[in-house]
C-alpha cells in the first residue's frame, strides 16, 4: 500500500527517470531500495527551469549538476542552452541519458505489469557537448522525450557564479538581444583625449526600438566577454554596482566611488576602482560614439553590449582596444634674467606650460605671482625635482646650484577655468621685483563703524615705506561671487576706472605690531554693496593687490 501511494504521487518526469534508470524483469525489494535511493538523489539535484535565466553559484573544484526533461508530446523538439560565465573560465558539459523502453511500475494492489514486452540493455550515458572558457556559449540541439539531460558545471580557479538559460520555445522571440553577423567594434578615429567607435546594428534594435539600447564599457585593464563579467569585476574591487539597467534608468543606487553624468540623452557612470576608471555609457540606439575625456598616450579597452530593457538580458559585441595619441611636447619658453612674463593656462585642456632658464650665478630666485585661478608649479634642476606645490598669492623659491645649471619650470591649471600667473627669475637678490609684503593681504572691515554713507576698513603694512591706493566699486548682490572669482590679482590700478579711485597714501612702521592703517570711506549710498581693493606699490612700481573685500552700508541710521 505504501509503495502504491509512493508511485501515485510521482510527477511525470520522475516516472521517466525511473524508466531510464532501471531495466529489470520484476520489482524486488532490492530494486525498491535502489530506486528509492536514485529517486532521493534526483529530488536533491536541481531541475533547470525552461524559459527562465538561472543564476548558478559554483564552489571551487565542486561540480554542480542540473537536469531537464521534456514534457510529454515534445518529441524531437529543438532547445537551446546559453551559459554566461561571470568571472573566471569554467568547464561545462551536456550529458544525455538514453534508455530502452522497458520499465516496471506498481499497479496498486495488483501484480506488476510489464510496460514493454521486449527487454533491452540498461540506460546509456553520453556526452554531447563540452566547453572550457569564459566566453558566452550557446548550444542548440534536438531533444527527445525519451531522454534525460544533465548539465554539469565546474570551476577550478575559485568560487564564482554563472547564468544559465534553457528554452524549448523557439516561437516566442529571444531572451537575449541578437548580434549582427559581424559583431566587431570598429575604431574610426583616435585623438589625444578621444576615441570614436562604430558597430553594426543589432537585428533586435531594428525590430524592438523602444525596448533595446546600447551600453558601452570603457576601462584600462582588459575586455569583458559579458556585462555580467564586467559587473563582477567592478564589485570585486570593493564597491556596489547598480543593476545593469539601473545605469540607464536611475541613479538611485550610486555609491560614493561612482559619478553619474547625464547629458544629451546619454548616461555615463564612472566607477573609481583601484585599477583606474571603469566607465559605463548608455546611448540609446546610436551605433557610433566618441568617447571623451580620455588620458593621452593611454590604452583603453572598449566593449559594447546590446541590452533588452524588459528582460535585463544582454549580448556582447567583440571587444576592441585603442591607444590615445601622445600629448605633443609642450613648447619651451626661455626665461631671461630679471624679466617678468605672464602665462595664461587653459584649464579645460589641462595643458602645461614650460619655461627654461640656464643659471648664470650659483644662487637664483624664482618669483611667482598668482593672478587668477589655481596653478601648480613644478621646478626641476638638470632633470631632478627641486620644488613642486600649488601656488597661492606671491611665492618665492631661492635655489642654489652651479653655473650653467638648467632649470625647467612647468605650470598647469588645477581647475577647469582659465588661470594665469606672473613669473620672474633673477640672480639679483638685492633688487627685488615685488614689494616687501605684510604678513597678511586681507582687508578688514569694522561692522560697528558702518553707517548709511560710510565704512571703515583696515589693512597691514610693512617696515618699508610704500604706497597704498584704495579703490571702490558698487556691485549688486548677484555679482559678488563673479567679482571675487574673476578678480585678476596681478592687474594694477591702470585697469580701473578713474571714478573708482578713493585715495593713495604712504605709511610704514618699524614695529610690525603697529604697522596697521585704517581708512574711512565716505560719500556712499545707504543699503548698498561695495567692493574695496587696496594696491601696494614697491620700489619697482609693480603693484600687489590685496584680497578684495565686500561691505554693505547700513539701510537705516
Automatic annotation (TrEMBL):
Record carries keyword Secreted: yes
Keywords, in A-Z order: Glycoprotein, Neurogenesis, Repeat, Secreted, Signal
GO MF annotation, one: heparin binding
One of the GO BP terms on file: nervous system development
Position of the signal peptide: 1-23
GO cellular component terms attached to this protein's record: extracellular region
Alphabetical list of InterPro entries matching this protein: FN3_dom, FN3_sf, Ig-like_fold, NDNF, NDNF_C, NDNF_Fn(III)_1, NDNF_N
Domain Fibronectin type-III per the UniProt entry, residue ranges: 177-314, 435-543
Entry annotated with the keyword Signal: yes
Compartments where found: Secreted
Function: Secretory protein that plays a role in various cellular processes. Acts as a chemorepellent acting on gonadotropin-releasing hormone (GnRH) expressing neurons regulating their migration to the hypothalamus. Also promotes neuron migration, growth and survival as well as neurite outgrowth and is involved in the development of the olfactory system. May also act through the regulation of growth factors activity and downstream signaling. Also regulates extracellular matrix assembly and cell adhesiveness.
Protein name: Protein NDNF
Organism of origin: Trogon melanurus
Amino acid at each position: 500500500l505504501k509503495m502504491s501511494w509512493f508511485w501515485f504521487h510521482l510527477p511525470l518526469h520522475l516516472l521517466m527517470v525511473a524508466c531510464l534508470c532501471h531495466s529489470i524483469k520484476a520489482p524486488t525489494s532490492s530494486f525498491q531500495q535502489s530506486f528509492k535511493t536514485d529517486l532521493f538523489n534526483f529530488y536533491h539535484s536541481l531541475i533547470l527551469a525552461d524559459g527562465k535565466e538561472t543564476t548558478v553559484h559554483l564552489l571551487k573544484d565542486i561540480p554542480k549538476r542540473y537536469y531537464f526533461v521534456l514534457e510529454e508530446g515534445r518529441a524531437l523538439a529543438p532547445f537551446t542552452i546559453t551559459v554566461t560565465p561571470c568571472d573566471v573560465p569554467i568547464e561545462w558539459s551536456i550529458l544525455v541519458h538514453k534508455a530502452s523502453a522497458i520499465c516496471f511500475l506498481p499497479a496498486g494492489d495488483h501484480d506488476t505489469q510489464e510496460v514493454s514486452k521486449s527487454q533491452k540493455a540498461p540506460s546509456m550515458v553520453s556526452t554531447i557537448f563540452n566547453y572550457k572558457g569564459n566566453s558566452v556559449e550557446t548550444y542548440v540541439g534536438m531533444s527527445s522525450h525519451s531522454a534525460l539531460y544533465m548539465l554539469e558545471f565546474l570551476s577550478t580557479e575559485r568560487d564564482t557564479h554563472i547564468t544559465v538559460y534553457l528554452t524549448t520555445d523557439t516561437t516566442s522571440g529571444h531572451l537575449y538581444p541578437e548580434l549582427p553577423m559581424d559583431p566587431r567594434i570598429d575604431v574610426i578615429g583616435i585623438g589625444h583625449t578621444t576615441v570614436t567607435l562604430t558597430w553594426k546594428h543589432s537585428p533586435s534594435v531594428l525590430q524592438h526600438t523602444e525596448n533595446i539600447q546600447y551600453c558601452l564599457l570603457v576601462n584600462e585593464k582588459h575586455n569583458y566577454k559579458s556585462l555580467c563579467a564586467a559587473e563582477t569585476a567592478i564589485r570585486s574591487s570593493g564597491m556596489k554596482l547598480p543593476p545593469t539597467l539601473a545605469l540607464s534608468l536611475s541613479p538611485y543606487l550610486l555609491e560614493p566611488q561612482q559619478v553619474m553624468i547625464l547629458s544629451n540623452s546619454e548616461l555615463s557612470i564612472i566607477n573609481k576602482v583601484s585599477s583606474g576608471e571603469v566607465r559605463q555609457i548608455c546611448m540609446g540606439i546610436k551605433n557610433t560614439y566618441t568617447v571623451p575625456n580620455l588620458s593621452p598616450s593611454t590604452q583603453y579597452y572598449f566593449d559594447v553590449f546590446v541590452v533588452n530593457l524588459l528582460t535585463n538580458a544582454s549580448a556582447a559585441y567583440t571587444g576592441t582596444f585603442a591607444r590615445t595619441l601622445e600629448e605633443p611636447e609642450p613648447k619651451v619658453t626661455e626665461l631671461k634674467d630679471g624679466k617678468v612674463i605672464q602665462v595664461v593656462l587653459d584649464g579645460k585642456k589641462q595643458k602645461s606650460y614650460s619655461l627654461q632658464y640656464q643659471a648664470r650665478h650659483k644662487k637664483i630666485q624664482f618669483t611667482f605671482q598668482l593672478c587668477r585661478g589655481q596653478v601648480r608649479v613644478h621646478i626641476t634642476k638638470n632633470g631632478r625635482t627641486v620644488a613642486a606645490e600649488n601656488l597661492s598669492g606671491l611665492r618665492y623659491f631661492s635655489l642654489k646650484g652651479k653655473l650653467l645649471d638648467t632649470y625647467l619650470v612647468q605650470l598647469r591649471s588645477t581647475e577647469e577655468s582659465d588661470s594665469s600667473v606672473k613669473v620672474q627669475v633673477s640672480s639679483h637678490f638685492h633688487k627685488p621685483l615685488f614689494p616687501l609684503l605684510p604678513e597678511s593681504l586681507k582687508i578688514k572691515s569694522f561692522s560697528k563703524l558702518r553707517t548709511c554713507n560710510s565704512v571703515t576698513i583696515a589693512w597691514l603694512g610693512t617696515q618699508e615705506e610704500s604706497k597704498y591706493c584704495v579703490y571702490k566699486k558698487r556691485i549688486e548682490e548677484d555679482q559678488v561671487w563673479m567679482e571675487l572669482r574673476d578678480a585678476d590679482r596681478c592687474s594694477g590700478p591702470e585697469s580701473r576706472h578713474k571714478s573708482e579711485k578713493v585715495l593713495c597714501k604712504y605709511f610704514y612702521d618699524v614695529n610690525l605690531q603697529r604697522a596697521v592703517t585704517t581708512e574711512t570711506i565716505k560719500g556712499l549710498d545707504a543699503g548698498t554693496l561695495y567692493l574695496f581693493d587696496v594696491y601696494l606699490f614697491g620700489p619697482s612700481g609693480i603693484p600687489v593687490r590685496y584680497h578684495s573685500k565686500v561691505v554693505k552700508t547700513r539701510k537705516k541710521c
